[in-house]
Amino acid sequence: MKRPILYEKRFKQPIIFDGLQDGLVSPTDIDFCFEVGNKFLLIGDCKKDDAPFPLGQKLVIERIVDNWRATSKISLGVIATHSTSPEQSVVLANTVVTKVYYNGKWSDTFMVFDNFIKRTAERFDIDKLKNLSWLRKE
Predict the structure, then answer these.
(1) How many structural domains are present in the chain?
(2) What mean pLDDT, rounded, does the chain reach?
(3) Least buried of 11, 23, 75, 96, by fewest C-beta within 10 Å?
């Protein structure tokens, strides 16, 4: 099932952080988050090819993942990359996971996102992730 974007014009509207910075303190954005049954969290960001991974964004992902893990829940942070032109939509399933934060450390990897989700669902036995529609393709 394809889930529609309800407010496409608003979806494309940038959020500007002007006036909300003070030195190193400023808002950041995270591109995606899967939370399943208060048991599993996957949070991450998409970057164009080798775009930098800002320290503030890295710290936010680490802290959220670490706080979930501290409550004995499964949590991972990921960075996924793509080569999509600005005129096209980035399809998360087709991006490549290049970094994974788990158990307090970052590891390099290279796996298409839909394969990463499938393996993660199997590894941690997350049934609701196993049933994602794009994973059932035969």
Answers:
(1) 1
(2) 90
(3) 23
